[in-house]
Design goal:
Strand content of chain B: 15-25%
CATH superfamily of chain B: Ribosomal protein L7/L12, C-terminal domain/Adaptor protein ClpS
Radius of gyration of chain B: 16 Å
Helix content of chain A: 55-70%
Helix content of chain B: 55-70%
Shape of chain A: globular
Order of helices and strands of chain A: EEHHHHEHH
Largest interface: A-B, 37 and 27 residues
Structural class of chain B: alpha+beta
Number of strands of chain B: 3
Largest sheet of chain A: 3 strands, antiparallel
Shape of chain B: globular
Radius of gyration of chain A: 18 Å
Oligomer: heterodimer
Number of domains of chain B: 1
Distance between the termini of chain A: 21 Å
Strand order of the largest sheet of chain A: 1-2-3
Number of helices of chain A: 6
CATH topology of chain B: Ribosomal Protein L30, Chain: A
Structural class of chain A: mainly alpha
Distance between the termini of chain B: 35 Å
Largest sheet of chain B: 3 strands, antiparallel
CATH class of chain B: Alpha Beta
Chain lengths: 195, 94
Amino acid sequence: MGDSGKGRRVIPFSKELNADGTTLVASLSQPELSLIHTLAAQVADMLDDLARAPSIADPDAAALYESVGIGGSAAIHSDPAIARLLPDAYKGDADASRDFRGLTERSLAARKVANARMVVASLTVAEEAGGELRIDATQVQAWLRTLADIRLTIAARLGIEADGDEGPDDEDSLVLRDVYDWLGWVTETLLGALE
Amino acid sequence: MTQTIESTEITEQTVLDSGWITLVWNDPVNLMSYVSYIFRSYFGFSKEEADKRMLQVHNDGRAVVAMGPREEMERHVEAMHDFGLWATVAKADA
């Protein structure tokens, strides 16, 4: 499993209890806000096509298809990041994996897109509030999942496939690696504030 | 005797229904604290049990986190994929 790049700056999430439940509050700098905003939007864009219902001419059939939410590709995606976010559900059983993907892939992609957009929306509010991020229990769940999806995407781009992999050491990769580690810290502090 | 027959049927039914497992696989990305949190919040494991299975994933490369009917295992796998964990369904005896 990954480690969270210890020693880096922690976003100090604090917990507020109110009538609607628990809200987590953090103060983020402008670069931090816009970095997560950009990365979450990229995850949403990357999966958007897979999250859409196929175009069906008959509007009644299209509406039914949309409401049921089933659909998916015939095989795992060739892009390693998408393949990691929408993985096979059976190991060593291509037929069962294909059947499962055909029923569930589109709705899984749609939930990931919705989570990422929820993160973007909460960051947009925070940007207007001078950097104060406030996330409720539902948004916390979207944040945790989206942070994982962003880090999995970066790891796929860096070729981090096994424990101990560091990724390439060119300058661009090192910058990306720093972002990856920092997002690990954000996850860690979010979880810490939830305890 | 009726009771014996009934209990035999129940046993067979239980074996058929619980013949599937949900496996979670190790990856180099997801944090140990996150995996443990998922096991607690989604499966309802105690902190001790969640940490035990998380360490099993970390050290052995995988851990069984649920056992039961295939449809239920597929729902769990989908939920794990939501979180970004790699999970698979398998036959219990495979």
